[in-house]
Design brief:
Elements (H helix, E strand, L loop, with lengths): L11 H11 L11 H61 L3 H27 L7 H30 L3 H36 L21 H12 L12 E9 L3 E2 L6 E3 L2 E12 L5 E11 L7 E10 L4 E11 L5 E8 L12 E8 L1
Parallel strand pairs: 3-9
Antiparallel strand pairs: 1-2, 1-4, 4-7, 5-6, 5-8, 8-9
Helix pairs in contact: 2-3, 3-4, 4-5, 5-6
Length: 364
């Protein structure tokens, strides 16, 4: 028997009566059991965990949206400065005059230097993980613009020194088409996929910046280039009689002979020396000589587009001829590359809509 055994336990009725007199409640049958208290504490912990989880998710969502804002703001600043160069160039080409010709070389040099800096700025932007692939296309678009400007200066200066405006205009048009390609690449492989990703993330307050380098796509046509040269030279070009024009018929991958589709995505095996067969038709009324044919491959990860050139020595009216072009290289990967095929233009050709085509290719 212990010391505590000597104490008699108070009856429940006395405890209750004393509790009423003192104003304190005793531990009666109505008091919560230990299990009830444990359940209450457990419920409180669950609520706390849920509230904390929601708070953490909200914080992470705000951080993600903040990263997206910062990224697209940086992209927008770079694209805006690039578009400003395009706007100045378009203004010079839309309103050529003797004053423009005098400053043409220095202005184009300034555009080149500024565009090279823009490429460096584009590469320095840190893209969120969700937009890594699209960011490569953003950089590639800026690189294509820089490539086009680097080729435009000698093309324009050579054309101004040549007697044949048609031949000079063909070279100028080719470089302007490269600049136009940058707008297509930016819209199709950066702007639209980023818009879709934001929609998938259900983020509505982040905007993807749009970008357009050439104010008027028609500036890239040979006919526009002829007009520009005429005004810069102060004299008309020599007239070519009769209907002239060539058209791109098809492009086939070698050695399989598989025709490429301009409407669907194409799958080809990667190679260090890709080969293609390009078919061209003379849709004019006169034989054409030395018809230029080229292939340009643009893909993310390449500093500049790859290009191979060739010529069809002669092609009679309504005749079709093929030319084999090789030397382009591509690595395997899931990213989409663009192969652009061009033929002509020939002197006197005014309809250019069927002179080129673009093909989306994934190399495996």
């Amino acid at each position: 028997m212990s010391f505590f055994d000597d104490e008699e336990e108070e009856p429940y009725q006395e405890v209750t009566a004393r509790s009423r007199r003192t104003g304190r409640r005793g531990r009666g049958p109505g008091s919560r059991s230990p299990l009830a208290r444990v359940l209450i504490i457990l419920a409180a912990v669950i609520v706390l965990v849920l509230v904390t989880s929601l708070a953490i998710k909200s914080c992470l969502d705000r951080k993600k949206v903040g990263e997206f804002h910062d990224y697209f703001d940086a992209v927008g600043n770079v694209a805006k400065d690039s578009d400003a160069i395009g706007k100045q160039l378009s203004g010079m080409l839309q309103n050529p005059n003797p004053g423009v010709r005098q400053s043409l070389e220095s202005k184009l040099g300034d555009f080149q230097a500024a565009s090279d800096q823009i490429v460096a700025r584009a590469k320095a932007i840190q893209a969120p993980d969700q937009f890594k692939q699209e960011d490569e296309w953003f950089i590639a678009s800026m690189q294509v613009r820089s490539r086009g400007l680097n080729g435009l200066q000698p093309a324009l200066l050579n054309a101004l020194g040549a007697q044949d405006n048609q031949a000079g205009a063909a070279q100028v048009s080719e470089e302007l088409l490269i600049l136009l390609t940058s707008d297509v690449a930016y819209d199709e492989f950066f702007y639209q996929p980023c818009q879709q990703e934001l929609k998938n993330e259900q983020i509505n307050d982040v905007k993807v910046p749009e970008s357009k380098f050439l104010a008027d796509p028609n500036l890239a046509s040979q006919q526009s280039a002829v007009s520009i040269l005429e005004k810069l030279k102060g004299g008309p070009t020599a007239q070519v009689t009769g209907l002239h024009g060539v058209a791109l018929v098809s492009v086939k991958a070698e050695p399989s002979g598989m025709p490429l589709s301009a409407d669907n995505q194409n799958s080809l095996k990667a190679s260090g020396s890709l080969a293609f067969q390009v078919e061209v038709e003379n849709q004019g009324e006169a034989a054409e000589t030395n018809v230029p044919v080229s292939l340009t491959l643009t893909s993310p990860g390449q500093p500049t587009p790859q290009k191979v050139d060739g010529q069809i020595p002669t092609i009679a009216p309504n005749e079709r001829k093929t030319i084999d072009l090789s030397g382009l290289a591509a690595d395997a990967g899931p990213q989409v590359a663009i192969l652009k095929a061009d033929c002509g233009p020939v002197p006197g050709e005014t309809y250019l809509q069927n002179n080129s085509a673009q093909y989306k290719i994934v190399f495996s």
